[in-house]
Design goal:
The structure is a homotetramer of 314-residue chains. Chain A has 14 helices and eleven strands. Chain A has 314 residues and is an alpha/beta fold. Chain A has a domain at 47-94 and 124-292: 3-Layer(aba) Sandwich (Deoxyhypusine Synthase). A six-stranded parallel sheet of chain A has the order 7-2-1-9-10-11, with helices on both faces. In chain A, strands 3-5-4 form a three-stranded antiparallel sheet. In chain A, strands 6-8 form a two-stranded parallel sheet. In chain A, helix 4 (61-70) runs parallel beside helix 9 and helix 8 (149-159) crosses helix 9. The B-C interface holds B 25-27, 102, 256, 258-260, 286 and C 25-27, 102, 256, 258-260, 286.
């Protein structure tokens, strides 16, 4: 493969741009590989584990994740609880705002605004979430006392009515959502308050380990799309590993491997799992996921749509 | 404060070096601030939340964390399950090795070796851990059926006999260890297998939210030392926030704020919590924690020891 | 401005995607600002300083830079000598290849291949460059003995015949190319060998400081587009500063400000120049330039073309 | 080599700490390797190229660099012109201050203060530098009309009287200082103004390429210590490469290899030079140089001093 001079053509599509990326350089090349692997894992019928961190749900990627689930590009979701809270908040009509990285944090605090990078969330949105979560927990408790996390999240998804919601689309399309640290957020606080009144209310995280394990089998081909790091990435890798490893792996992150963290661990490690045999089936893309992921996935969408391989697309 | 020419003097101590760092530049200045804040939070009687990720337990920092707990520099620990597994493995005599970042991962896999950055863990160590964890779960189950995570970890700590063990020192010194994603590792798999045989065995993560919340009170001054990012950092911030915010905060990480992740969120945000009033009480240090943390903490140890403020030190 | 759910639409163009980026999050928002500033600086008639490092010329961005010059989006270029060498090599027909970041460097060395990240350059290409540069220096020397660097580069540009060449397009369109470290490469070695034979051959870097200074005036509005860091970025900032500062500034880089380097310095500093008054006129985008720059510039191209503001476009 | 639990001992020295780093993890291991290579290159009589960027001279490392030159740990220096300007400013008594990364840049501008990360330089210091540089250029011009950069810098070093000055110690100890982009700073502006009055005043950068080339021979063993990236690092690598490659190489930087820049290029590339044969002779340390470099070099100083191998040390 040769490096080619990149040139703009009027009306250039995302597909055409990412196509040119394979001859461009550095991370654009890795991004074009990622896009090809997305297509390969789908065509090969692999069970796709999609993981993301909650800051991505704070951003507008939330609607894109819902679209991905609808189109059948994710069979299992792993995420952190902040993303689940915010997906519900948005489904209930809360609006997040665009701010600045160098905002005056003292001033924001006085105005009742929380900052997440250059995005802003009103404290009021969290208060509205609290009202809403209490009602939800009451309804869940009436159904049964002991819930595996993914069962609970599916039930909540069915209560929502928003096509851009991750929980809604996952529930509709039978895609389980796993959240190994369900208490690490406002949700956890409300689970605690609820349990104080109902000592027999149990969130069973151990049962959910079985659920994610049996969401695929040893014989399934498995693919991992890990956006960002944290336990969402680790949990998906762990579970595919216990079933013989993933055949396809794409990591998109801003972290580097130099500190030994799982966030920065590369797909080269995937070779040590003993399952990924071909260089062409793994890619690590360094960069902000709000830019790199839509580029790579849209190219894959265009190709798969052309061949009629996107579910629910018409 | 002026910049001063840094000069080596023969036999230079860590204390003297970090002292000079306040006049040196960039992250060395931030590191010297972090060290001062460690001393301040201790002298002010703040409840100190220490958080770290499991890759730091893979490294030799594990013994340093145990020492910190023993000396009373941590009142609450928050970490991820990998670190707990490896602390137990090391307490049982498993040895980890130093390797290379650019190791041949296929070759390592064939030899049964897992790579964590430039450190190596034999697969055999994990198998030995499995034998050991089964016995531990049997013993726990005999005591009671429903365990909050931190209660379980204390019980395990009491079963160990290793002064360099985090769980051992925490148990001996009544420092609770919280792990909001207890199933995200080999431990989770074994909890699952055990629960298959004992359906009434329950890991109660919700109860533990109450435990971390009441590990301090609204009236306590609180300090956060967050090493690396992930849910350990987030969980400590969340819990101090629910009690009116932290008075002191030091973040040490390799992540940057540009992607909006909690791993890269800075202490400037701490001002938006509404509790940290003085610039001198917060610091963010960018760099590998295996270098920056020992430097900053040892300088604090030396000063606190001089004033007789280190517990169990003699 | 609100965060909006990002959604793919079939056949999505780059323009439409970057348009949606303003409501997406983190670096995608900063990227959409950068794109708007590109349009603003052009419409406002600002003199645009475009700076890039040589690794970007190794990549396929070389053709894109040539296109940018042709379309009148750059009035002054500042770069490093490696980029100039490789632009000439490519104009002479040398082909660079796509490789891998984790290539076996010993094996590459034995095959006579140099690695630049995941791109590969044959040693033979450098040898062909040497043959070519000797002829060029002979021709220059016949014309005169003392050359300012930018004069020399213009003369070389006129000798080339490749529409994708930066030097060619710059020469044709009267855009000066400044290279403050002209000896830092193979080119420098050949200048030295030539000067050994012709002691009166002088490369006058001091004269070129005047040339870049008078490439604009105090009264001109000035814009800086700095891709990557290094002296190219610093030189452009320095020269606009000596003329009262830039009115517009976009920095695209992978470096962070934490180490105090000019590579990671942010546009917030631009405010300290005393010229940039409005937040809307500066942007810093963190990420690989092979991805972020084409996205932002193509969106600007589409808008400017629509209004007939691209030179030589038809 | 095994991972060992890191433990503090009262009065711990830097030497003892870095010694323990070899069993600690991640970048601390790489740092301890770097320290060993510093000792090896000295004992092996290698010609040592030390490169640094100007932000490091802004910091207090300036005095440490002077000390390194005095002790014979650097045979050739390569740097950028900002560092040279600031070395002279400090030698003339200017004081730089410690500030904050999140300073109010508009306020600083109004006060006549320039910010470099968390360090501050008064505009007045630059004005004093200008007065001083005019006198220096007059004196140089009286001696001769055509100066290679390194000859000029040696002459300036001889005019200074400050043991903490890089230029002073280099001049006294016959260590040449190369600066391939001498015009990229305030110095360049004054060279230009001076040349306007004296057209026959010539700064000969081409001649200096020969000077750095012949500062070592093909037969010399060569070592490179590259702090930060930029052309200083590139120039040293280029020149050792033209003489058969370096036998030892330590890179300390905050940049990563993912964007293909020379700043982030690793020492693994050094193997492709064909000279570095042993893994033990190269190291890349990721982190802020104000922390990592003093640690690694002080450990080497202590060992070399013990064996009487530090020049001028008594």
């Amino acid at each position: 493969m040769q490096v080619k001079d990149f040139k703009w053509e009027k009306g250039m599509t995302v597909r055409s741009m990412v196509d040119k990326f394979q001859n461009l350089g550095y991370q654009s090349i890795e991004l074009s590989k990622a896009s090809e692997i997305f297509v390969k894992m789908r065509k090969d019928g692999a069970k796709i584990f999609l993981t993301f961190t909650s800051n991505m749900v704070t951003s507008g990627l939330r609607g894109f994740f819902a679209q991905i689930i609808k189109y059948g590009m994710a069979d299992v979701i792993v995420t952190t609880v902040g993303g689940i809270e915010e997906d519900i908040m948005k489904a209930k009509g809360e609006k997040f705002k665009v701010g600045r990285f160098d905002a005056d944090d003292v001033e924001l605090h006085e105005k009742g605004i929380n900052r997440v990078g250059n995005l802003l969330v009103d404290v009021e949105s969290y208060m509205n979430f609290e009202d809403c979560i209490r009602v939800i927990l009451d309804q869940l408790y009436k159904k049964k006392k002991r819930w595996a996390v993914s069962e609970m999240l599916k039930e909540i998804g069915l209560m929502l009515d928003d096509k851009n919601s991750i929980l809604y689309q996952a529930a509709k399309n039978d895609v389980p959502i796993f959240c190994p640290a369900i208490t690490d957020g406002s949700f956890g606080f409300h689970l605690y308050l609820f349990q104080q009144k109902h000592k027999d209310f149990i969130i069973d995280v151990v049962q959910d380990f079985g659920n994610i394990l049996f969401s695929t089998s040893y014989d399934d081909k498995k693919g991992v799309i890990a956006l960002g790091g944290s336990i969402s990435k680790h949990h998906a890798i762990l579970c595919t590993l216990l079933h013989g490893g993933a055949s396809y792996a794409v990591y998109m992150t801003t972290a580097h491997q130099s500190s030994g963290s799982v966030s920065g661990a590369t797909t080269r490690e995937a070779k040590s799992w003993g399952k990924v045999k071909y260089e062409s089936d793994i890619a690590t893309v360094i960069g902000d996921v709000t830019i790199t992921f839509p580029l790579a996935m849209i190219k894959a969408f265009e190709e798969l749509a052309e061949e009629g391989l996107l579910k629910n697309e018409s």
